[in-house]
Amino acid sequence: MIDRLLQKKDKLAVIGLGYVGLPIALEFAKKISVIGFDINSQRIQLMKKGVDPSNELSKEHFDNVDIQFTDNPDHLKDVRFFIVAVPTPIDEFKQPDLGPLLSATQTVANVLKKDDYVIFESTVYPGCTEEDCVPILERISGFSFIKDFKVGYSPERINPGDQTHTLHNVIKVVSGCDEESLNLIASLYELVVDAGVHKAASIKVAEAAKIIENTQRDVNIALMNELSIIFDKMQINTFDVLDAASTKWNFLKFYPGLVGGHCIGVDPYYLTHKAAQLGYHSKVITSGRDINDSMGTHIARQIVKKIIAKGKNIREARVLIMGATFKENVTDIRNSKVSDLVNEFKSFAVSVDVTDPLANSEEVLHEYGFPILSTFKGPYDAIIVAVSHQEYASLNEYYFNTLLHPGGILADIKGIFRKKFTSLDYWSL
What we know:
alpha/beta; eight-stranded mixed β-sheet; five-stranded parallel β-sheet
């Protein structure tokens, strides 16, 4: 079957062309014939023009590729390999929202043929592929799992904004529903992953591996955030402590901060959800989530206290927040915890301005209810550098002094200006 793909007698489709799906589709399209499918027609039109709606890939990535972008499910009828790479977010109650995944599975099921392969890349809890997705494929297509069609799972490892760890040079975990499918899926990904593949023992193992990659980071960052709260009460800078502790060979250097995004701030909830279904209520993971989800509120309240301590009427205070994306040097605003900062300040009737050189103001306004200012004017009582964009790194002490009231506060969440300024009232985690 791989030979038929290489000879372009068969086609592969990628369902969902976001941060994960589009890079995968374009890489495969350098070797084989690909259908790139997404339900968002506006995104499809941009991609047809060689534009990545997520602003991660340059126009050159669209050169010399055999790919058809479409939002028409009928174009999927001749496809033999399907890769599903749609988002798996959480809802307002922090429960897994499988809506996009199940909808994409239905789309595939409607065009599924005998001997087709379906590979899921969306982050899910262990068991989801076989317990939630496969029954949809069977029911709608009328085919039998394993006998008539094969399924696999290969967790995505795309890191927005990271030009170092790419699809080419990061080992790809693959799994299949049987030995034949495992080997074929491994051979498929070896076409585009130079680092090679790791064959997981089962689909559930591959699903679990993805979940714990981000859960481990979440718990470790939560520890750093809790330590930062403790050290702040001791008037110790957490980053100074980490510099000292990291001189030991086996110290794991994680940093405190706002934990948002589509992975670390979401994936652990999929694991705790499944654990609860099995009658186990996670303690460490949920505690870590509680700490990380509360950091926006904690930071805002610390700044409010400092403003009040300077004798300022908090209802007359003005604050500037620099950065609105979920992390540095990306345009991605999904699950940005900067919104928690804004909401907490507003609960104290503080006037808040938000700026960001990368975030789209319309998207932020639609998602979080506040605009991104391209121009802003002081004086402010506090400036919070919430996201350490590269554009901010070159800012000097004079710049902040021109925007702050005399005695105003600079809150540097990620510590990028630590030990650089002397005349400012400086605070970091």
